[in-house]
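Fold this sequence, please.
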Amino acid sequence: MNRKKIKFLVSSGPTRERIDAVRFISNRSSGRMGNAIAEAAREAGCDVTLVSGPVSIAPPEGVEVVGVESAADMAREIRARASGADVVVMAAAVADFRPVRLVEGKLKKDSVEGPLTLELERTEDILESLGGERGADGPLLVGFAAEMERLEENASEKLRRKNLDWIVANDVSGNEGGFASERNAAIMLSRDGNRMEFPLMAKRELAKRVVDAILLDIRR
């Protein structure tokens, strides 16, 4: 008998929060880790949808790709698909803040005298919202945490606060792994107290190990 295909919903890349028609707030996420997760899940025989912010790398073949720009765009597309997924992996680096007001057209520097103040507001924490809203039959939730200090302590707190099943935490304070790098090291923690530590390795290999752990959990 054929086993039902597991459906993965993966987010990847940064978001862009517009200031005016040509300027935006963003971050250094390359999308490599999220894309690698999507590729590893597809290679494991899963159906995969990848919701990606603006990146310069090609998406993996054989997955459905949904392009988004802002945090609000990503929240909308993730919410529209989460209920139909078995696993949601939020590997995107979603902006925490966005400008309160969008300037129409291009902000002219000659129109500003002295310092320019940019007022920001919080964006939605998509994964925390999903964790707070899901029922017993909701998808397995996996978050990523890019930290610069107290890696495991901060990751454990996010795992609990966001009601996640797993969190994958990596230290982005150095140059060997993290944003823009082809490699990464990580700690993977579960709500059941499981802990796995992955040394510095290619992101594709790390993604395979993360996906293997997820599939082992969901098939138990």
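The mean pLDDT is 92. The domain at 7-99+119-218 is CATH 3.40.50.10300 (Rossmann fold).
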